[in-house]
Amino acid sequence: MQRRTFLSGVVPAMAGTTLFPFAPTPLIEKNDAFPGLITREKEPSNLEFPFATLKGRITPNAQFFVRSHFPFPKLDPDVWKLSLTGDVKRAITISYDELRKMPSKTVMATLECAGNGRAKLAPKVKGLLWEQGAVGNAEWTGVPLSALLEKAGLNADVLEIILEGADKGEITEEPRSPGEIRFARSISLKKALEANVLIAYQMNGKDLPIAHGYPVRAIIPGWYGMASIKWLTNIIATSKPFEGYWQTIEYAYWKRQANQPTLTAVTAVEAKAEIARPMLHEIVPAGKPYRIHGAAWCGEKSVIKVEISTDNGLSWQGVKLLDTEIPNVWRLWEFNWHVPSKPSTAGILVRATDSDGHVQPDKHDPDRRTYMVNKTVAMEVEIG
Ligand SMILES: Nc1nc2c(c(=O)[nH]1)N[C@H]1C(S)=C(S)[C@@H](COP(=O)(O)O)O[C@H]1N2
Ligand SMILES: [Mo]
């Protein structure tokens, strides 16, 4: 009993002495605490960022979502080599040390998996059911791909650059792979020559974590994540369109040309705004102000505006875009909601508009299959 009284606050104060010899640990606000990544698949490792915990513009490395199709390859930077071959004047090989000695650049870029939001499709579809957190934003440091292409010298007929990772395996479920394959994608030559396309070795100022491609990965800002090849080992210049597994069977959609649906590789990110808080069925206090916040991104385009509806899509108004504009980077946004005083439920929606005037749709286009999911989704909350 004696002890309990002491702990509940009766601390003997002594004149002239400091009560605590060390600084008390700052309290972590419960709402801002990061509870860890969400497992979408154990092996290969697929982990989602709990989007409700979105705090700053930069996603810390340990909180960044992980998307992998095969087990992580363990690569030793002393042995690792990057080869650049194909339709080039001189094939080259670069060691990790050589790459790190080349002039480098740091680029901020938002990465979103093309399957982000898939859990919100009904009826339920195949594939990993990502909710809102297969997206993150980081600063990447590395060598512009264009500098390496210049070293090798491209032939005049080069159309695409294939990027290949060291991870490999066999897809044994339909649609099966032709035996063991690597993870590889191509980017157009035009994209490859963009100044911000990097062969990166650092993420937020630290060497890449294994999960994010150690020792070296590609960063293709403005395109869905599948193009940013991790554990990169081969760069191949080609004069023909690449039609590998990961851009025909997977990560491809039906694009209509002259009314003919043509299977086309997924590339640039579509406009999207997401709500971090409130969460689904969160209880928001009636009659009080509530700060609704989240992030918005539009791939290669700028975020022109983000609108919000707190009445299930009946009326819309603009939110406040925070931060400055950086190409291919999300912007955080906020909206001070005057919560109605009557207890009820509310459906909150947000929609982004890009600099080409594209607004997020309210339905998912089936031609997109299970990729590029950017339809608006109501976040239902309880006013209580
Ligand atoms: N080698 C390799 N690169 C890869 C993948 C992969 O499985 N293997 N997954 C891609 C996909 S689909 C996405 S969304 C991003 C995810 O990057 P992150 O795991 O660093 O978030 O990596 C891409 N690069
Ligand atoms: Mo992805």
Automatic annotation (TrEMBL):
Segments forming domain Oxidoreductase molybdopterin-binding: 69-246
Ranges where the Moybdenum cofactor oxidoreductase dimerisation domain occurs: 266-364
Pfam families, per database record: Mo-co_dimer, Oxidored_molyb
Keyword Oxidoreductase in record: yes
Entry cofactors: Mo-molybdopterin
InterPro entries: Ig_E-set, MoCF_OxRdtse_dimer, Mopterin_OxRdtase_euk, OxRdtase_Mopterin-bd_dom, OxRdtase_Mopterin-bd_sf
Keywords annotated in UniProt: Metal-binding, Molybdenum, Oxidoreductase
GO molecular function: heme binding; molybdenum ion binding; molybdopterin cofactor binding; sulfite oxidase activity
CDD domains: SO_family_Moco_dimer
A biological-process GO annotation: sulfur compound metabolic process
Keyword Oxidoreductase attributed: yes
Listed transmembrane segments: none
Name under which the protein is recorded: Sulfite oxidase
Organism for this UniProt entry: Dyadobacter luticola
Organism classification: Bacteria, Pseudomonadati, Bacteroidota, Cytophagia, Cytophagales
